[in-house]
Amino acid sequence: MAKKYQNFINGRWCDAIDGETFENRNPADRDDLIGIFPKSNKKDVDEAVKAAREAFKEWRLVPAPQRGQIMKKIGDLMVQRKEQIAREMTREMGKVFTETMGDTQEGIDTAYYADGESRRFFAPSVPSELPNKVAMTTRQPMGVAGVICPWNFPMAIPTWKIFPALTCGNAVVFKPASDVPATGTALVEILLDGGVPPKAINLVHGTGSTVGSPLVEHPDVDVISFTGSSVVGRKIAEACGRDLKRISLELGGKNGQIVMDDANLELAIDGALWGAFGTTGQRCTATSRLIVQEDVHDQFVDMLLERTKKLKLGYGNNEGVDVGPVINEGQRKIIHNYVQIGQKEGARMLCGGQYATDGDLAKGYFYKPTIFTDVTSEMCIAQEEIFGPVVVVIKVKSFDEAISVLNDTAYGLSSSVYTNDVNRAFRAMRDIEAGITYINGPTIGAEAHLPFGGVKDTGNGHREGGWTAYEIFSEWKTLYVDFSGKLQRAQIDNQ
Ligand code: NAD
Question: Is 168 a catalytic residue?
């Protein structure tokens, strides 16, 4: 009998008002039904926003360090439940157990960071230009935060948004992706057990059109924090723009790793494999382009192919598995379509390019890790986000050409350069158009206390992670106190 899950709205667990449901299944084994979830709509969103607005009245007045103490407790609970969360997350979305442990650890780090940050809401006081007058600033919560998340980091990404939002004193309405509703539920249980006031966190399950859109368009939601595709991000930005609503967008990527002739090739291969095929290539920071200098190109490609062929596909909760399934059949078709486009464009496919269906793999959505060489930068497979285990290799003559190819994309999230030349390293850090640049490390591996996000079509200038996330969820307020006992007019009285 499949477990029945509920929404959490207005301080209680409940079904969708219209009683509709949807199923969620293990992408490594379609016969494994994880649960039945409420398929909510605008009515449920309205209830959730109303409850959050009510909760905000009191939550905003709780001293920030006390909210931080709750974050500390939440971090402790996540530590206790880490393995259980990770096992279920692997079952729900497919990436291997060590990676879901890492995903959960990122949430733990974010909780402890929030505790520290709650005592550091620094806001400058500066001298007034007038006598007997004080000028200072403070940061205030915004109100109701709408949090809309993707499925590929089902614990880490919601914590990046919800923990700072709550620590700043906002109430939250959270919509997890419909491929990962169980992990979203586990997070809300922890928030409640940690002491977040029940109405301050609301969970509404459902699709982007039935739950995400009404949340974005709700007049009583003050800030939307969205992570997902650039296509959806653009639509949400338009809706928020009409309402002058604050929005932070963390969107797609087409990340490149440069490998120069002076690089440690073993290290560069380790990085490329992890960056391209970790999380089955389904990371916004996945390495999807390898930009390799011609003198080392052939050797690098041989080494990459040999190592890729050894990767073991399977259910991520089983020992020894390197690569899990992709998230669902729709995504597998998109990946395969890109592979066919790549072949038509004249790229050379070295391995993969097929559904993996041997033995138990036939039960899930597995796709063979795929490498293309003879790729040029203008090809569709070198430009568009594939979001699967497909990597393209582009041969370049020089370091300048490598930087120019790396920048030749609409996106600008992560980037990496393997070189032992310090001058190249510093030029790369200066000239690459991306929010994140790694030297001698793969494009993936963000740390929770540093800003995370990208330039160009990857976002709209906000950064999650670290202290910058707190900017998203708070408003500056400027305070003047005049104790002169007379009317002082700024500027004019200065003459
Ligand atoms: P998606 O854009 O399809 O969905 C993301 C979320 O938005 C889901 O919860 C979905 O239900 C919801 N949604 C869909 N349509 C909506 C609408 N019209 N209004 C409101 N909400 C809507 O993305 P996905 O497939 O879940 O995730 C993969 C994408 O996310 C990739 O493009 C990846 O690069 C990106 N991503 C970016 C980051 C980052 O930090 N930059 C991190 C992870 C994933």
Answer: no
